[in-house]
Design brief:
Layout lengths: L18 H13 L4 H18 L7 H56 L1
Helix pairs in contact: 1-2, 1-3, 2-3
């Protein structure tokens, strides 16, 4: 009599690894949508903590760490972009006030010259 093959008595880890998701978020955050970068950074830290406590498979450590590092780099680019945008907006507002003042003086001079004719 032949018995079917037995499943090994393997418990595994209580939680599934999210390292591939973290790497994808890190890549997308760096290339397409930088808002995803802080999420990749946060989830990467959570994944590494879960691996260290034994709740997740340590085979995903390098992948999670790569996604976390991409998240850090993308977050730095995001912060630089936001600061540059703020400086740009402040410069536009400052220049528009200056230009509108100059335009007001010019239009008064033109109107005065036309009225004198």
């Amino acid at each position: 009599m032949t018995y079917p093959p037995q499943q090994p008595n393997y418990q595994g880890y209580p939680e599934a690894s999210q390292s591939t998701v973290i790497l994808v978020l890190g890549i997308l955050g760096l290339v397409i949508c930088q808002v995803l970068s802080p999420i990749a950074w946060y989830l990467g830290n959570q994944e590494l903590t879960s691996i260290d406590t034994g709740r997740r498979d340590p085979a995903g450590r390098n992948t999670a760490n790569a996604g976390r590092i991409l998240g850090i780099i993308g977050t730095v680019f995001l912060i630089i972009g936001v600061v540059a945008l703020i400086f740009f907006l402040v410069a536009v507002v400052a220049l528009s006030d200056s230009v509108s003042d100059d335009f007001g003086e010019i239009s008064e001079n033109v109107l005065g010259a036309l009225a004198a004719r």
